[in-house]
């Protein structure tokens, strides 16, 4: 989980995933390396091959912001990839954090006001720190998990009832993993994050297969669909808020669509259950 090592692995994964034709180079028939060669990246970014090689090897070398941005342009990184690259290379890291993060009362009242829309709060390691009543109805199994497993990544990859609940699970899981990686870049040295990744590697074949790809993505508003065992097919619009006073928290709200009764059906099932 060393950030310099991850920086090197991230650069290598993006280099190997970039077709030569995308940067105006011939593909050729004798390439042993998928994507671009190191020397091609170095040439296009205007850096020495030795320096770039050391960067991919995770050596302790300094890289200016301008040089990193040149690498980002060469590797055709999007906004999330560029931010991930800069964060990995910056050396900046938050101070030690408590294992347990609590949501302020104001945030708890905020998500309570969102009922009957499911809403919850994630901590910096993507642990659940608060849920409103509607979210408890959507994921009733969450409250029964051990505290260490009440984490969005753990639920997504290791909780079988959640997997059955989520429509298009593989697409959802891949996008969630990419967002998690981008959202926890500065926590690569955090022991709790390292433990979570290690445990997910051991418990989830999909996580073990996809994590080495180094995919990163920013949050995007989208529809999320569920196959609830009692409330039926549910569809919500997935939104995320970052409180300016508590930027280490993420407030997630799943809004009902105009004319759709998913929230009402979910609430009604619980009321009579």
From TrEMBL:
It holds the Pfam family HTH_31. CDD domains: HTH_XRE. SUPFAM superfamilies: lambda repressor-like DNA-binding domains (SSF47413). GO terms for molecular function: DNA binding. SMART domains: HTH_XRE (SM00530). Residues 10-82 form the HTH cro/C1-type domain. InterPro entries: Cro/C1-type_HTH, Lambda_DNA-bd_dom_sf, MLTR_LBD. Gene3D superfamilies: 3.30.450.180, lambda repressor-like DNA-binding domains (1.10.260.40). This is Unannotated protein. It comes from freshwater metagenome.
């Amino acid at each position: 989980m060393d950030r310099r090592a991850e920086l090197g692995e991230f650069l290598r994964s993006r280099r190997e995933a970039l077709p030569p034709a995308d940067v105006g180079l011939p593909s050729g028939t004798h390439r042993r390396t998928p994507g671009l060669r190191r020397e091609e990246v170095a040439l296009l970014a205007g850096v020495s091959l030795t320096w770039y090689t050391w960067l991919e090897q995770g050596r302790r070398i300094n890289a200016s912001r301008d040089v990193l941005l040149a690498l980002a342009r060469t590797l055709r990184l999007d906004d999330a990839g560029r931010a991930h690259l800069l964060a990995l290379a910056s050396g900046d890291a938050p101070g030690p954090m408590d294992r347990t993060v609590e949501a302020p009362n104001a945030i708890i009242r905020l998500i309570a006001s969102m009922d009957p829309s499911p809403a919850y709060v994630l901590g910096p390691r993507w642990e659940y720190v608060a849920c409103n009543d509607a979210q408890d109805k959507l994921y009733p199994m969450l409250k029964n998990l051990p505290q260490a497993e009440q984490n969005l990544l753990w639920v997504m990859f290791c909780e079988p009832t959640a997997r059955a609940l989520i429509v298009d699970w593989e697409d959802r899981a891949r996008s969630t993993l990419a967002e998690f990686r981008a959202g926890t870049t500065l926590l690569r040295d955090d022991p709790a994050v390292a433990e979570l990744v290690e445990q997910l590697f051991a418990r989830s074949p999909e996580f073990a297969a996809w994590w080495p790809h180094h995919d990163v993505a920013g949050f995007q508003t989208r529809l999320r669909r569920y196959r609830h065992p009692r409330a039926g097919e549910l569809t919500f619009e997935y939104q995320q808020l970052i409180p300016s006073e508590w930027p280490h928290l993420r407030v997630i709200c799943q809004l009902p669509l105009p004319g759709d009764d998913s929230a009402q059906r979910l609430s009604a099932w619980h009321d009579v259950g």
